[in-house]
Amino acid sequence: MRELTLIRFSGAIRAVTVVAAGAPRSALLCAGLLVAAFLGGYSAGTQAQAPVAAAGDFPQRVIRIVVPYPPGGVTDIAARLVAPKMADQFGQAVVVENIAAAGGVVATNALAKTAADGYTLGVVFDSFATNPFLYKGVTHDPVKDFVPISLMVRSPQLLVVNPASGIKSMAEFLRAAREPNRVMFSTPGAGTSSRLSAELLKASAGLDITLISYRGGAQALNDLLGGQVTGMIASMSLVFPHVKTGRLTALGVSSPQRTPQAPEVPPISDSIPGFEAQSWTGMIAPAGTPPAIIEKIHGAVVKALAAPDVRQRLNEQGVEVVGSSAAEFGAWLQNESSRWGRVIQERKITVD
Question: Taking the complete model, does pTM exceed 0.70, yes or no?
Fold first, then answer.
């Protein structure tokens, strides 16, 4: 299946043809070459207009933020909120471009090969750390081939059920989920953090949950609201609005502590010790980007995230603004890759 993503830049529309996750590997590689050529061609064109600046003079031209996912999600929203704030600080345009294909693989493969000069950045979410364990077409290492800039936001997930299930607490859920074929969960897709969290839930508590993967969060949520499945564990931004209206019942939150957005919901770890799973969004740059440039970009991102209007918009999405240091994000990324990689391998999860 093919998608067409239109990218507007400097008044022109550039079209990049990309492929879905289920496409043959040859199609995925062709799409990767096309995106790489697009990114590389643009980089070469702008470098011809202006030489690479010293760190003290950075930036001297447009900065591009690549979001490897469709518009409208929390990652895209976070990128689009910080971009104009960064532009104000730098006195240069900061443009966000969406290049969506194969769970972000095509764009991040290409991003790893772009010039390490600070003018092409990425804003990615949690699947960035797990894609190498899931997709055969991944040609980059999320730790070695990129420089972390900042963990921008994170959000716990909510374990929710349809009220028609009759399940009202974690204790009731655990009893029901140990009965064969009683509990079914929807997930937005085989390689999503929702699916991985559900697998961790099953493994941590010895649960018998049937997992049904959909093509995206909207379909998975619709079947949950319609009663076709029992529940799901998913980002707060996806399910919490329906908890507030009473269409879903929240049983637990995946963070170690209660969350300010839903203080009445206990941590899942109160019932399943050690359980933790969080969605997150962070900014990266290609490996080799000079530390002084990373420091300047980091300062601009953290300042943008601290702006009251940005924090309010992000809080409305059900996420916590973090604005970590580059070192903290690097440690977080390495831990996420290692931890979820083990889950994927032990549970034999594949998408190819």
Answer: yes
